[in-house]
């Protein structure tokens, strides 16, 4: 079966739906440790992270923020908020005391009236949500295009790091011209520098 985005989405979502909470937590903890090793050269960076969606069984970024943040306290964390009625995001500092609201898709977001806004050009590292990626750094997301638009607005030197329960695939066959590749993919087993 070819590795098309549609096939990959179907397979990965099915596999994730069968994942138990304890397994997700264990794998996310391993990803946090591998991510920490990757971030050590940048201990004072501004790091953008999606806030994981429990119903999608995503890598637990709340756990990762807690683990990595405790070891690298000078990292400043940022989370997105989808601007209602658009396919664009705005970005706010995020920590344990940030007030979060749930949007219409069930995703937790910082309260824009209470959180401090961050400009895209201030961000150094982006943790990118994905279902899978390939060895060239191309990823399969959920198909909404939010991160494609966001990554295109970031500085070219911003590190784009995917978090995945899965190893990189050999090749995603239907990559689009606007797809922006990742620099790395962090899995429970190791950190992959991309392309490889």
From TrEMBL:
It catalyses: (6S)-5-formyl-5,6,7,8-tetrahydrofolate + ATP = (6R)-5,10-methenyltetrahydrofolate + ADP + phosphate. GO terms for molecular function: 5-formyltetrahydrofolate cyclo-ligase activity; ATP binding; metal ion binding. Coiled coil: none annotated. The keyword Isomerase does not apply. ATP binds at residues 5-9, 139-147. Its cofactor is Mg(2+). InterPro entries: FTHF_cligase, FTHF_cligase-like_sf, NagB/RpiA_transferase-like. It holds the Pfam family 5-FTHF_cyc-lig. One of its GO terms (biological process) is tetrahydrofolate interconversion. Its EC number is 6.3.3.2. Substrate binds at residues 51, 58. Keywords: ATP-binding, Ligase, Magnesium, Metal-binding, Nucleotide-binding. It is an enzyme of class 6 (ligase). It comes from the Bacteria. Belongs to the 5-formyltetrahydrofolate cyclo-ligase family. This is 5-formyltetrahydrofolate cyclo-ligase.
